[in-house]
Fold this sequence. Notes:
This protein is mostly beta strands. It contains 5 helices and 49 strands.
Amino acid sequence: AQLRYSVPEDREPGSSVGDLAKDLGVEVRSLATRNLRLVSEGGQRHFQVDLAAGVLLLDSRLDREALCGQSPTCSLHLQLVMENPLQLHRVEVDILDVNDNAPQFPKPEVVLEITEVANPGTRLPLEVAEDPDMGSNSISTYELSLNEHFALSINVRGDGVKMPEIVLEKALDREKVAVHHLTLTALDGGNPVKSGTAKVTIHVLDANDNPPVCDPPISKVHLEENVPVGTLVTKLNVTDLDEGPNGDVEYSFKTSNNAPGKFTKLFSLDPRTGEIRTKAPLDYEESSAYEIAVRARDKGSPAMEGHCHLRVELIDINDNSPEIVLTSLSSPVLEDATPGTVIALIGVKDSDSGDNGQVHLQIAKELPFKLVSSFKEHFSLVTNGPLDREKASGYNITVRAVDSGSPQRATQKTFYLRIADVNDNAPNFSSPFDTAHIQENSLPGTSVFSVSASDPDEGSNAKLSYSILDNGMQDVPISTYFRIDQDNGTIYTVRALDYEQDKVFQVPVEVKDAGSPALSSTAVVHVFVLDENDNAPTIVYPSVPKGSAFHQTIPALAEPGYLVTKIVAVDADSGHNAWLSYQLQETIETLPFQVERRSGEIRVAQALRESEDPHRLVVEVRDNGTPSLSASVVIVISLEENSVQDFSKSLDLPRSSPKDTNLTLYLIISLVSISLVSCVMFAVVAARCL
């Protein structure tokens, strides 16, 4: 069940609140046996149960204002617990307000000011008195002591609070009464009525009826940016017709608390003289103008004020250099880029205005580039001519920006543009014709010559490979004689060479780069085979089988100098290796014959005797090589009486004129002629190629 009681505040402890036994319908004597106990829902215990009388008693003095404050209602909640059977009862105790608090003003004395020229009806707000009591015990009304100039007006606020105001009912004269002393009384509605008072002192102020006047109220000042700190901007012209403190003017900036003016950080104001000066550098690019509001307030009571408005317009000076912004750069660029190819996008900006902000871009005239204006403050750097990486692999491009201010300000930015290679250069041999010499019979794999080529391109475009072309000039493909290292251009023999078979080779060599498409060039290497003494002389006449002898008869009366016969020999080698010499092998006995060393003629050296036996001569033919090679023939010479022999008939050779007898001489002349013809042919071929 729930029980509800009420009790006034400030009752003495032990006072009865309610008859629990009666209200619960329980006999008083059973309360103890059923263990009736009180459980408070709050932290502080304000009540107790008298089990003997069965009543609820106050345990302490209650203060409604302390317990519930300004709440319209004030209740305390309790719980009663009984056992056998277990029962729970809720008790709600209403605390009734009593008029135990008198009204009280926040300040015991209030000082007000009013000008003597205030019009009747002027209201002076007063502070509200406070009363902790509620309801009818709270403040009911206000009373003001009698005064012919002032009356009391009470307004009721939306929440029911009464607001007292003093109303001027009659004009004041400070010269008669400078101060008015009044008493304000606040009355509550309790019984008995309680009250509180406050003294009200009203000072009548001398009339400050002329506000400061700014002349002109709105003005404009032009000022160059970046003037030195402390530069005088202007001096305000303010007048106040009042005298004394009422005419003494103080100056201050007029700003809003929510948005204080930025100008206060840049300008200072002398509160006495009204001089406005700069206190920080001014920057046109940050703000081109400033609006300054100044309050001119006199020292009257109450103070009156006037307002001045000043507009400071800054004059731009050329204090900012242009700024170059490289938006994009296409690097590297191919060297075969067509004229007009966009290389870079360049932006430029200048924080100045007017001519000071007009910017022109420049680059060096000798560069193969030019600047094209895309749109305002944006330029394109494009190619203006052919590019050649082999002449210039890159360019340091300096872009210079100059404004139109006076004096001019300039800035520059340098960036590097790399030129990418394209395969536009064929490999080039150091010489289109080269000459090499190699000894015949050299082992296969012998290095003959190294050709060298260069390519001004780079990377794969300059990677060279060498090969031998088969031009069909030889009966056998040239590749069967020579091979070439494709990386370094060294020519090697494939097999041993024979001077007697081939004396000179024309080896066409091609060099090709790895570009796309690949470029190539050719050169011819003339390989001269050098003779080696690898062939022994061959005896042409007399021609006798190996191991046999040649028999020759001469007259027995042949005189010294008589031509017996002539040994004719040839050598397949050339040069010194083919120079032959003839000699007789030494014997024990002295022979009456001799051999001409160069011609091979065998002649009678001394007079012969008819009775002499046949003479056996061994003629040795030796070349001039190193080591020297030789061949020999055996000639048996017999004497014949009365025999006259024509040597020309005895030779097994075709008849010829006496000029053809020296065969060796003709062979030498033939070789020289062939050499001269070959040199002439090589010279003609070289002239045509060049």
